[in-house]
Each structure stands twice: as structure tokens, then as C-alpha cells.
Write a structure and sequence with these properties.
Strand content of chain B: 25-35%
Order of helices and strands of chain B: HEHEEEEEEHHH
CATH topology of the largest domain in chain B: OB fold (Dihydrolipoamide Acetyltransferase, E2P)
Number of helices of chain B: 5
Number of domains of chain B: 2
Largest sheet of chain B: 5 strands, mixed, barrel
Structural class of chain A: alpha+beta
Number of strands of chain B: 7
Number of helices of chain A: 21
Oligomer: heterodimer
Number of domains of chain A: 4
Helix content of chain B: 25-40%
Radius of gyration of chain B: 22 Å
CATH superfamily of the largest domain in chain B: Nucleic acid-binding proteins
CATH architecture of the largest domain in chain B: Beta Barrel
Strand order of the largest sheet of chain B: 2-4-5-7-6
Structural class of chain B: alpha+beta
Number of strands of chain A: 11
Shape of chain A: globular
Largest interface: A-B, 71 and 50 residues
Shape of chain B: elongated
Helix content of chain A: 55-70%
Chain lengths: 647, 157
């Protein structure tokens, strides 16, 4: 019964989104205050109704209501409680409902936190977001209904895909969607500004915090996905350049360009055209990512079976949202004037370099992702583009980006001079010294690429840290110095340091990881990367919904005992699918990683053993980036501005 | 030149330089790193390149998996129900590797007619088969999706 209430609520939300996407927009066009006043309650109503629908689905999962098809397909009575809730977004239909809920949540947040926005602008933004809600709700209701009944009801559910029964996967999709969907707000602000023809720096100031929040969630989402793949897939890789990963990485690259370009538009009232285009393209890439993942056009480890109808829906939505944005842009662009002038050596120029490199990086990733699909459609042949392509194209773009970052942070708006180099003399000396030390002491299998990456990472780190250090020196005390630095600059410093940490992690892990697949007889041991793995025992253990074979491995380094590791091979009872659960000794300086293979007779098993130095730094850095984003958003200047407008 | 024009020119030059460099890198990388997919029938017909790395996909022939006791090397036969290609692989096979399962192997053909795989991919989902393998099987006159369409078309996020 409850599930029908949920279904009905979502249908009502659909009806309401038709109203919310049209009437207020008409009101804004006619300057009719009564019609415009409809936007806020309509958006809030949508959120409440979709939340009711979502709650109904959650309740069905908690109750093990297998008369609901989606629940029967993705849950089971033996599934632990937390995973029953996570199973709501464990497959296509439910995760789409979560997507719509988050979208409605973003719209709700805009309606709450944008009290200071001019009514017309606010109305347009909310109406445009309602268009997106309308699109996704119709997609949900017409092609992917999670509320469908299964009659007669199943006695037992088919269980959640075992790979998804994991704490990181519980929060990974919501975080990722917060990011993906959040860029719709940036899109809505850009299109609303184009509609009104008021593309000024105030618009950039409104749009900035929203874009940054979306970006920081996407950062966390991608990082969680990478961490999950690392320990759950049992291969020890942290990034595969898999099309589905690329699908989330492309909007991230474009979004990163966008938050920097927004800074220029706000501070210097220039780059306006470019910023608007970036906002449109970032959201387009979010939609493209959704299309790639949901339509089944991809050949990948994640590839999901094809459903052309669903793909066509998303493609149609993408076409509409992008072309509306671009059409309005083409119409308005001639009237957008960028007033700010700047010299070839200035912060603007360096941020322009940043933007170009990030956008080009996004394009190369896009090319590698779409190329196989295009060739397949053209019947030229079935190919796959592997990690070597992405490494060969992506890395050479990131190195100059890091070089530009250091100059960008220290440069001045509008016009800088040769003094920029003088200002950075000390910083570059320190970076060179630290980089050299790190290269000599930490990196073992060095190469030119690795050495250069390490130097550039320290360059980014030192130039970022230079800001607060200078403040501290000029104020004479740490507290006063830190306090005098505006919060958004703290955010920049922390995020850039995060990037440096991630870059160091990537460089060292790529250079120095050791890996070997070996057969070990019980009682014997194998040595990989200086660690000795002794295979002590193997036994059967039972989990709540799986049976596992668990090996006990004693890890020693020289004579010193390091850890006991227990890699498992699990068979989940319902789907009878095997799963490797790696044994990992995580550490700040290195991870020791072992996964269990199979019995090869003679009381021996095959194992994959890995030692991965600094691998944790990759995710540690992304935490810094996210915190940096959070600090920037919390800067009171956005709220101060709001108050001043209200007064 | 006015400052605005100069700025625009800089935009264009930077963008062109960036795109040009990336096109260069991309085409270089593409040339070296593309891997084509072949079915056992195509390999048997000699369509697959000799000496180059490619991807071979098909079903693991039931009863064909063997390994010497205590050795990490596994040998099995991949089939599309028409042709059969022996494959050798040293390493940990993926969780979902099983007889009768559709898999994709990356590697090279050896002179003795054994495909030496350096990577073996099976899919995350037990009920799922790589679209390429499905098509290879269809081309060989055996449609795996006909048996139980529900099984193969379950959606996963």
C-alpha cells in the first residue's frame, strides 16, 4: 500500500514540475509578481513529494516487501540492515530516484539560501531547475519505474550485487550525484542570466558557492569510487581509465575550470562568455556521463546490458538542455561585454592557461572514451582504448598545469611584471630543495617523468603555503597571520596543497609499487617488495549472507613482524557470485596488499601480493581538496554580500 | 592592435596550441594503444594480426580449464561455439572466471597457436556478458540472450 503512496507522490511531483517549469517563467517574462511567486512553493512541494516517494521505497526495502519488483531484484532477507537501505540506490531505477531527490534538494536549497537574489533571477533559476526535474521525473516514470509491483510477490529477493555490499559504496553514489546534479545549478544560473541579459560579476558571485559545493561533492564521490575499486575489486588499482570513471572525471575537470573561471568573472568582470560556456558544458558532461553509464553503449568493466530506449531518453534530454543553453548563448553573446583588461602576464592570463589545459584534458578524456563507440557505430571495428592512451595524453597536460598553478597563486590581477619571478625566488628554491630531497630519499625507481612530477608537486605545495606564511610574517604572529587571510584564500591554499599531495601519491605509487602473482604452499612464504608473506593457514568462515575461504598471512619485513592479513574469497549465497576480499595493511607510507587466488593443488594457493608506497596520499589529497572547497564556500563574503543586498 | 583584440588573439593562440598539442599526443597514443577485438572464428580465419596485442573473447569451454599442480599457469579454451582457441594465462584469474562463462582475454598469439593472455577480464555481474562476446556468439549462430533474456538484460547502475 505504502509503495503506491510513494508512486502517487512522485506522479504528483511530476505534475507539479510541469507547473513549476512553465508558469513562473512566463511570470518572469511578463514581470507578473503573482505568477513568479509560484516558483518557491512549487519547488519546495516537489522536494516534499519526491522525498515521500523515496521514503516509500526505503520502507519497502526495510520491510523486505518483495511484492515490489525492484526490491525483489535487489534485496534479500539475509542482507544486513545498512545494505538494505543502500540497496535503494543499488540499481538503475532506485539510483535514478535518488538522483531526482538530490536534484529537488538542490532546488530547495537554492530557494532557501537565495533570499537576496532579485526575484526575477531567482524565479528563472528555480524554473530552469524544475525543467531538469521534469526531464528526469519523466525518464523515471516512463522508462525506469522503481515502484512497479511484482505479482505474485517473490518469496525471497535476488539480493544486492555483492560488489555493492560495502560501506564506501553506501555513500559513493549519493556523493557523486550531489556533484553531478549540483552542476545543474551552475547551468541554471548561467541560462537564467542569459535569459535576463544580466551577465555581470554579481551573477558570478551568486553562482560561485553553488558550483564550488557541487565540485567538492564530486571530488569526494570520485575519490570514494577510486578507493572502493582499490580494495574491493582485489586488483589493487586505484584508477583504471574505465569509461564509467571517465564519465565522472570529465565533469570534474570541466567543473574545476569553471570554478577558476568564475573567480575571474567575479573579481575582474571578464571571461564572461567563457564562464557561461563552461557552465553549460560542465552540466552537459554530467548528462553525458549519465547517458554513457545508463544506456549501455559502453564497453567496459562496468558495462551494463543495453537498453536503447533509456539511452535515447537521456540523449534527448542532453540535447535539449545543451541546445537551449547554446541557443541562448548565441543570441546573447554579442551583447556581453567583458570590461576588464589584462596584461599577458597577470593572474587572468595564468587562469586562462589553467582553463585551457583543463578543458583540453577533458577533451582528450572525452575522445578516448567516445572513440571506440564511434568506431563501433561506423562498423569500422571493435576496439578499446586502454590506460596507456590516457596516461600518454593526460599526464603531459597536468605537468604544465601544475607549473602554471604556482605562478597563478603568486601573480597579481590585471598586470604583473618580472617581479613575479623575484617574488617566487625563495619559493622555487625551497620547492627545488624539497623536491630533490624527496626524489633522492623517497622515490626508488626514478625516471625523468616521476622526478619532474615530484618537483612540480612541491612547487604547487610551496607556492600555496607561501600565502599564509607571508601573512604570518607580516603580522608577526601565527594567529594574526592566519586570521588576516580571507577564508576563500585558505580554501585555495588547502585545495592546492591537496592536489600536491595527490600528485605525490600518484607519482610514487606509479614508480615504486611492487606486485607479484605467486603460488605458495601452506607454511611457505614469498617475498615481494621487501615484505615476506608467510601463508600460515586457510579455513572456511561464514558471514551473514556469504561463506568465505579465508587465508591467514603473516607479513614480516626482515625480522620484524608487520601484520596479520586475512584475504578472503567469498561466495554470496543468493547470487552465488564469488568475490575477492583483499587483506590490506594500510599505512601512511605504504600499503601491504594481498588477495587470495585459487587452490592449485598440493596444499598450495595462488596469491597476488602488492606493496604500494604512498597510495593513501592519493585519497588524502582529495580530502584536502574537498576541505578547501568547503572553506571557500564558508567565506562570509558571500553572506555579507547577501545582507548588503537585502538591506 | 587594441588590447581587446590582443587578448582575443591570445585566447585563440592558446586554445589552438593546447588543442594542437593534445591532438598530437592523442593520435600518437591512439596509434600505439588501440586494441581490436576478435572472436575465435575470426582468429581461426586468420583475420587477427600476427604478433600484435589484441582482445579475444568467447566462452570458456566446459572441461577445458587445466593447470599443473602447484603452478600458477592456467590453460583453457575459448570458443564461440564454432572455433576454439587455446589460451594460456599466468596469474590470478578474476572472481567470475568459470567454465561456460563469457570472458575477454588481452594478449598475443604465440607461434604454437596458443593465445598468451596477460590480462583476463570477466564481468562484475554474474548474469552479465560482455556485449562483444554476445555479438561474437551471435555471429557464430548462437544467441546467448535467447535462452533467458531476463538473465542477461538485468540492469546494474
Amino acid at each position: 500500500m505504502f509503495i503506491e503512496v510513494g508512486h502517487f507522490a512522485v506522479v504528483l511531483a511530476f505534475a507539479l514540475s510541469i507547473v513549476a517549469s512553465t508558469i513562473p517563467l512566463w511570470g518572469a517574462h511578463k514581470a507578473d509578481a503573482r505568477l513568479m511567486a509560484l516558483a518557491v512553493p512549487a519547488v519546495r512541494g516537489q522536494f516534499v513529494l519526491i522525498a515521500v516517494g523515496f521514503a516509500a521505497l526505503v520502507a519497502a526495502f526495510i520491510d523486505n516487501d518483495f511484492s515490489v519488483l525492484y526490491v525483489a531484484e535487489n534485496s534479500n532477507t539475509a542482507l544486513p540492515f545498512a545494505y538494505r537501505i543502500a540497496a535503494v540506490w543499488g540499481a538503475h531505477e532506485g539510483s535514478l530516484l535518488l538522483w531526482v531527490l538530490i536534484l529537488a534538494g538542490w532546488a530547495l536549497a537554492v530557494s532557501i539560501f537565495s533570499q537576496s537574489l532579485p526575484v526575477v533571477m531567482k524565479t528563472r533559476v528555480l524554473a530552469l531547475l524544475s525543467w531538469v526535474t521534469l526531464g528526469f521525473l519523466s525518464f523515471l516514470l516512463f522508462t525506469s519505474n522503481p515502484f512497479e509491483r511484482l505479482i505474485p510477490a517473490a518469496l525471497e529477493g535476488r539480493d544486492l550485487n555483492p560488489l555493492l555490499q560495502d560501506p564506501a559504496l553506501v555513500i559513493h553514489p549519493p556523493m557523486l550525484y550531489m556533484g553531478y546534479v549540483g552542476f545543474s545549478v551552475a547551468w541554471a544560473f548561467a541560462v537564467a542570466a542569459l535569459l535576463g541579459g544580466t551577465l555581470d560579476s554579481t551573477w558570478a558571485r551568486w553562482s560561485r558557492p553553488w558550483t564550488t559545493v557541487a565540485w567538492l561533492f564530486l571530488t569526494i564521490g570520485i575519490s570514494l569510487g577510486s578507493w572502493w575499486a582499490y580494495y574491493e575489486l582485489g586488483w589493487g588499482g586505484w584508477w583504471f581509465w574505465d569509461p564509467v570513471e571517465n564519465a565522472s572525471f570529465m565533469p570534474w575537470l570541466m567543473g574545476t575550470a569553471l570554478i577558476h573561471s568564475l573567480a575571474v568573472t567575479e573579481k575582474r568582470a571578464t571571461f564572461k562568455n567563457w564562464t557561461v560556456l563552461l557552465a553549460i558544458f560542465t552540466f552537459s558532461l554530467s548528462l553525458l556521463g549519465t547517458f554513457l553509464v545508463r544506456s549501455g553503449v559502453l564497453v567496459s568493466v562496468h558495462a551494463f546490458a543495453t537498453d536503447p530506449e533509456r539511452g535515447a531518453w537521456i540523449l534527448a534530454m542532453m540535447t535539449i538542455f545543451v541546445s537551449v543553453g547554446l541557443f541562448l548563448y548565441a543570441w546573447r553573446a554579442p551583447y556581453i561585454t567583458s570590461v576588464g583588461k589584462f596584461n599577458w602576464l597577470s593572474r587572468e592570463s595564468l587562469l586562462l592557461v589553467n582553463n585551457v589545459l583543463l578543458v583540453v584534458a577533458a577533451i582528450t578524456v572525452l575522445t578516448g572514451t567516445l572513440y571506440p563507440i564511434a568506431l563501433d557505430w561506423l562498423k569500422v571495428g571493435k576496439i578499446s582504448v586502454g590506460p596507456p592512451y590516457f596516461n600518454a595524453t593526460f599526464v603531459p597536460l597536468m605537468l604544465p598545469l601544475m607549473l602554471a598553478m604556482g605562478f597563478g597563486v603568486a601573480s597579481r590581477w590585471k598586470r604583473d611584471s618580472r617581479q613575479l619571478l623575484n617574488r617566487l625566488a625563495v619559493a622555487s628554491a625551497v620547492a627545488a630543495a624539497l623536491g630533490l630531497l624527496f626524489n633522492l630519499v623517497v622515490v626508488e625507481n626514478n625516471s625523468v617523468l616521476i622526478a619532474v612530477s615530484v618537483f612540480l608537486a612541491f612547487w604547487v605545495l610551496v607556492t600555496a603555503a607561501r600565502e599564509p606564511i607571508q601573512r604570518i610574517r607580516s603580522k608577526g604572529s601565527v594567529a594574526a597571520g592566519i586570521k588576516s587571510l580571507p577564508l576563500h584564500l585558505h580554501g585555495m591554499v588547502v585545495a592546492h596543497i591537496g592536489l600536491a599531495i595527490t600528485a605525490l601519491g600518484i607519482a610514487v605509487t606509479s614508480a615504486d609499487s611492487a606486485m607479484a602473482d605467486e603460488v605458495i604452499k601452506r607454511g611457505n612464504s614469498a617475498t615481494v617488495g621487501g615484505y615476506e608473506f608467510q601463508f600460515m593457514n586457510i579455513e572456511e568462515v561464514a558471514g551473514p549472507n556469504y561463506d568465505a575461504t579465508r587465508a591467514s598471512i603473516k607479513v614480516n619485513q626482515g625480522r620484524e613482524h608487520v601484520a596479520w592479513l586475512y584475504p578472503e574469497k567469498r561466495i554470496y549465497r543468493v547470487q552465488t557470485s564469488p568475490m575477492t576480499e583483499a587483506g590490506i595493511d594500510a599505512g601512511f607510507t605504504r600499503d601491504v596488499y594481498i588477495s587470495l587466488g585459487e587452490p592449485v593443488g598440493n596444499d598450495s594457493w595462488s596469491f597476488r601480493m602488492q606493496v604500494k608506497p604512498l597510495v593513501r596520499w592519493i585519497w588524502l589529497g582529495t580530502i584536502f581538496m574537498a576541505i578547501g572547497g568547503l572553506l571557500a564556500v564558508c567565506d562570509p563574503r558571500y553572506r555579507r554580500q547577501a545582507k548588503r543586498k537585502a538591506a | 592592435m587594441t588590447p581587446i583584440r590582443r587578448k582575443r588573439l591570445m585566447y585563440v593562440v592558446l586554445l589552438l596550441a593546447g588543442v594542437g598539442a593534445s591532438v598530437f599526443f592523442a593520435s600518437q597514443a591512439m596509434r600505439e594503444n588501440l586494441m581490436f577485438f576478435y572472436s575465435p572464428t575470426q582468429v581461426e580465419a586468420g583475420e587477427a594480426p600476427v604478433g600484435a596485442r589484441y582482445r579475444l573473447g568467447g566462452l570458456v569451454l566446459t572441461g577445458s580449464v587445466e593447470r599443473e599442480a602447484g603452478s600458477i599457469e592456467a590453460r583453457f579454451v575459448l570458443t564461440d561455439t564454432q572455433a576454439q582457441i587455446p589460451v594460456s594465462f599466468s596469474g590470478i584469474l578474476p572472481d567470475l572466471f568459470r567454465e561456460g562463462q563469457g570472458i575477454v582475454a588481452h594478449g598475443r598469439m604465440r607461434a604454437d597457436g596458443v593465445f598468451e593472455a596477460d590480462e583476463v577480464l570477466a564481468k562484475h555481474d554474474e548474469n552479465y556478458m560482455s556485449p562483444e562476446v554476445v555479438e561474437a556468439l551471435k555471429a557464430a549462430g548462437h544467441d546467448p540472450t535467447k535462452g533467458d533474456p531476463e538473465e542477461y538484460q538485468r540492469q546494474k547502475p
